[in-house]
Amino acid sequence: MERLQKVIANLGYCSRRKAEELILNNEVSVNGVIVNKLGTKVDNNDTIEINGKMLNKQTNKVYYMLNKPRGVISSAEDEKNRKTVVDLIDTDQRIYPIGRLDYDTTGLILLTNDGELTNMLIHPSYEVPKGYLAKLKGIIDKDAIQKLKDGPIVEGRRVEVVDFKIKKKDPIKDATYILVTIIEGRNHIVKKLFKSLGYDVDKLTRVSYDFLTLGNLKSGEYRPLTIKEVKKLYNK
Question: Under a CB-based contact definition with an 8 Å cutoff, are residues 176 and 138 in contact?
Fold first, then answer.
């Protein structure tokens, strides 16, 4: 037997955290009885319903990589009816993003209905490296570069900078283009990282997620992950 919220997530309905919210809000029933305790366990013979709709236990797992455009929400739905990353994927499956990118941040984001993989990848213990190309306002100086090498302290915690490379310094536009790879999951962490060094981020694009890169995907385009890629993510 497994916890109800884990089963809901693994069936691809939503993330485990969202499943916990549904349970606490009396929206989930097991065998016709509303369940609102997070410790409840179920087995394969139990019938699970969410808001009266029975979950399909035969759902096929799907996995997508999207090059997220600016001005799109990294969520399955938005209360303000703004366009979401899910709106850009043509699928009949109920999918959701793995993690988030800010509204004005572009680049690589994964979407799936595989709750097990989602929970695995977003857990801090898996330490997934993520690469970002940032356009900074101003020309980065030697002191900031040294702090990047040492690992900047943001909000009392050190950020693990795996690698960084200055791609271009543009004195005319007073801008620095820098590629940085970090192991970190805090909200707005890249912007906060460079803010701690004295620089605002003008533009930000995620260019890699673990071993995955955008390749030839243009803004708004997506592709399914290969079986090999999915297995490699599972074997982290």
Answer: yes
In CATH terms, the superfamily for domain 129-209 is Alpha-L RNA-binding motif (3.30.70.1560)
Task: Look up 210 and say whether it is catalytic.
Answer: no
Instruction: Report the relative pairing of strands 201-209 and 106-112 from DSSP bridges.
Output: parallel
What is the amino acid identity at position 193? L
Which CATH number, 3.10.290.10, 3.40.190.10, 3.40.50.1370, 2.60.40.10, labels domain 2-54?
3.10.290.10
In the three-class reduction of DSSP (H, G, I as helix; E, B as strand; rest coil), residue 48 is classed as strand
Question: Are 175 and 134 contacting, i.e. CB atoms less than 8 angstroms apart?
Answer: no
User: Tokens at residue 104, please?
Assistant: 């004005």
Integer-rounded Cα Rg, in Å, for the chain is 20
Query: Catalytic: which of 102, 141, 143, 170?
Result: 102
With a CB cutoff of 8 Å and minimum separation 6, the contacts of 155 are 186, 192
Could you tell me if 207 and 217 are in contact, meaning their C-beta atoms sit under 8 angstroms apart?
no
Phi, psi of 118 (to 5 degrees): -60, -50
- Tens of pLDDT along 174-228? 999 999 999 987 889 999 999 999 999 999 999 999 999 999 999 999 999 999 9
